[in-house]
Amino acid sequence: MGRGEAIISGISELAPVMDAGGRRTLDFLAEAAALAVKDAGLGKDDIDGLLVTPPSEDTYILWPSQVAEYLQLTPVFMNMVELGGASAVAAGARAKLTVEAGICRHCLCLSGGVWDAQGFNTRANKTAVMSQAEIDYELPYGPMGFNSGYALIARRHMHQYGTTPEQLAKIAVDQRINALANPQALFNTQPLTIQAVLDSKVIVDPLHLLEIVRPCSGAAAVVVSRSDRGHDWPHHPVDILGFGEAYTHNSISYAPQLSQSPVKMAAQRAFQMTGRTPGDIDLVSLYDCYTITVLITLEDAGFCPKGAGGRFVADTDLTYKGDLPCNTHGGQLSCGQASFAGGMSHVIEVVRQLRGEAGPRQVRKNRLALVNGNGGVMSTQSCLILERK
């Protein structure tokens, strides 16, 4: 098989739901897969590569094989990508490498799952996703899962750089404006104000309820294909220009520092691979499990100096109408975090924008975008740079 550039040829995203209605992860994945393959103008038999993120409630054992069997696919290459919230973006990077190496022609990247929001922060569920270091050295002090780690990061940034609660709240407010224009978002009926965010319950100081992602259920899929000259794709192809990944720690106890993340290295590698700079980027879609995640990612990816993130988000319109459109679907904070599909939603939204298919929230400039995935507590990072072909 000859080589060719990797493009995103098909996408799909199911609307996030709080109640899965008895459906399992495989049910969600099957629906998303069928829609993405159709969106690419392909048939099931055209799919010869399969990358999946882990399930939420099923066994991990032979998970790619379980998915392939359920979907009745016979890929020549398949794997599971497990980098936490960075998994979906990382799957896009791996699909690019696989397609451009000529291993497969059309690689289906699937993310999704069923999450019980009520049980998400129980001790048993927290322990299930903790490393041994976290169990030994953090759990005895009663941390609230990921909330505690990101609260530490937020407090450190406030102490070190003077970042204010109002500045962090502004991120949630701008993303809610975006969600109001997204019919698929979980929270798309009620606008937010900075005061409303600050008045919401403090979950782990200094983070408020409306600064923390809401777990839900759903699925999303991307088809990465080899770009053949003369092929008539149903939609405007989107190039995967380049990517970058970086890792510094798993447990926050081992983080080299709290106010700077491996986003810095991941983004630098993506920009170096593509010859682009932050100034070239028209829109960003950044993993947003917490407001502080967005702020630190903007700094470390080079959109503002380190420590200036608070002032930057306060002075910059991050809505789809603004200077630097960010998370134009509402982000996970207002659209929902459907398990690992929460990370994939950022890829999907950028492709919609670059295609010019975002409807009322369509951005004015839509040539080049940066997508970020964040795993753990600002630990594992993956970045993609996508371009309208």
* Assembly category: single chain
Query: Which strand order does the major sheet show?
Result: 3-2-4-7-1-8-11-10-9
Question: What is CATH's topology name of the domain at 6-117 and 215-226?
Answer: Peroxisomal Thiolase, Chain A, domain 1
CATH C-level label of the domain at 6-117 and 215-226:
Alpha Beta
**Any low-confidence stretches, pLDDT <50, length ≥5?**
none
- Output the CATH homologous superfamily of the domain at 6-117 and 215-226: Thiolase/Chalcone synthase
Q: How confident overall, as mean pLDDT?
A: 93
Instruction: Tell me the series of helices and strands, N- to C-terminal.
Output: EHEHEHEHHHHHEEEEHEHHHHEE
> What is the architecture of the domain at 6-117 and 215-226 at the second tier of CATH?
3-Layer(aba) Sandwich
Shape: globular
Classify the secondary structure makeup into a structural class: alpha/beta
Describe the secondary-structure layout.
Layout: E1 6-13, H1 25-39, E2 49-52, H2 63-71, E3 77-80, H3 87-100, E4 106-113, H4 123-128, H5 132-137, H6 146-161, H7 165-180, H8 194-199, E5 202-204, E6 207-208, E7 218-226, E8 238-247, H9 263-274, E9 283-286, H10 291-300, H11 309-315, H12 331-335, H13 341-355, E10 368-375, E11 380-388
Parallel strand pairs: 2-3, 2-4, 9-10
Antiparallel strand pairs: 1-7, 1-8, 4-7, 5-6, 8-11, 10-11
